[in-house]
Design goal:
7 helices
């Protein structure tokens, strides 16, 4: 990321808003905003240590909260994610279900793309029997402007047995709290 370019962009934005950048409240704002965006778009590194699967039961992380950015307005989106898979031959450390979500947040991203990218990453790394991802998002661009709703947008992606087997799909959705 080019921090200096981001700072210049924030300076132009503030100038366009008629803000006095010499005001003590705005001194350093371009640098702070640039660092904030860098932090939001830099996930922690994670290594995928996979282990032999001891069962083929559903493994599910639900309620994982992360913050991303909407690509249309650069507003924060608070996501609550449920990510699960049915192991085939491999399983992974449980923290990786949270990390796989965070690793997709390297730039502003559509919620639909986030859900698909998470599912694809799990499929690629583990080759499971099935993958399910449900992401509910509270979008700043909908809460603070326009329609001004506090509702959330829900996107789901199912692959393998979680898509094709109605009982497995229902189990996943019931466990996530989304029938």
């Amino acid at each position: 990321m080019d921090i200096k370019k981001m700072e210049k962009g924030v300076e132009l934005l503030l100038d366009g808003m008629g803000v006095d950048r010499d005001d003590l409240n705005f001194r350093g704002t371009p640098a702070r905003v640039a660092r904030m965006f860098r932090e939001m778009c830099t996930p922690t590194e994670s290594h995928w240590a996979a282990f032999p699967a001891s069962s083929s039961d559903l493994v599910l992380l639900r309620g994982h909260r992360v913050v991303g950015l909407c690509p249309h307005h650069l507003q924060p989106v608070e996501y609550t994610c449920s990510v699960g898979y049915v192991p085939n031959e491999l399983t992974v450390g449980l923290s990786k279900l949270a990390r796989v979500v965070e690793q997709q947040l390297v730039a502003p991203i559509l919620q639909e793309d986030l859900a698909n990218d998470v599912a694809d990453a799990l499929n690629e790394k583990l080759k499971p029997k099935g993958v399910g991802v449900v992401i509910a998002g509270r979008h700043g661009c909908m809460a603070f402007r326009g329609v001004r709703t506090d509702g959330d947008v829900v996107v789901s992606v199912m692959k393998g047995v979680l898509l094709l087997n109605p009982a497995a799909r229902m189990e996943f959705l019931q466990l996530t709290g989304r029938p």
